[in-house]
């Protein structure tokens, strides 16, 4: 089944809530810690040993762009 979202904000909120409740909360189904490598390599993509560094690079770029838009 595919999910359908009425806006980008709804998409982001849904996936953020899912990540928090399934991966980032102690006792959650996929909780292994809160670092990118703990979340990513244990359950999401165990065979992607270098995937965490790629995600961090993307996240750093997005945070940089958001920061520049917000004037920070």
Topology diagram in text:
Elements: H1 8-24, H2 36-44, H3 51-70
Helix pairs in contact: 2-3
Structure description:
The chain is mainly α and about 70 residues long. Helices cover about 65% and strands about 0% of the residues. The chain has three helices and no strands. The chain has helices spanning about 10-25, 35-45, 50-70. Helix 2 packs across helix 3 (about 50-70). The longest helix is centred in the last third of the chain and has 20 residues, at about 50-70. It starts with 7 loop residues before the first helix and ends with a helix.
SSE arrangement, N to C: HHH
Mean pLDDT: 84
Main beta sheet = none
Distance N terminus to C terminus? 40 Å
Task: Report the count of strand segments.
Answer: 0
Shape: globular
**Alpha-carbon Rg, integer:** 14 Å
**Residues in helix, %:** 55-70%
Structural class: mainly alpha
Low-confidence stretches: none
Percent of residues in beta strands?
under 5%
Q: What features would you highlight for this structure?
A:
mainly alpha; 72 residues; 3 helices; globular
Please summarize what this structure is.
By secondary structure, the protein is mainly alpha-helical. It has helices spanning 8-24, 36-44, 51-70.
């Amino acid at each position: 089944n595919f999910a359908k979202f009425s806006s980008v904000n709804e998409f982001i909120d849904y996936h953020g809530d899912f990540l928090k409740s399934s991966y980032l909360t102690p006792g959650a189904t996929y909780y292994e810690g809160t670092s990118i490598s703990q979340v990513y390599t244990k359950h999401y993509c165990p065979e992607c040993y270098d995937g965490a560094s790629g995600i961090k690079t993307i996240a750093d770029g997005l945070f940089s762009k958001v920061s520049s838009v917000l004037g920070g």
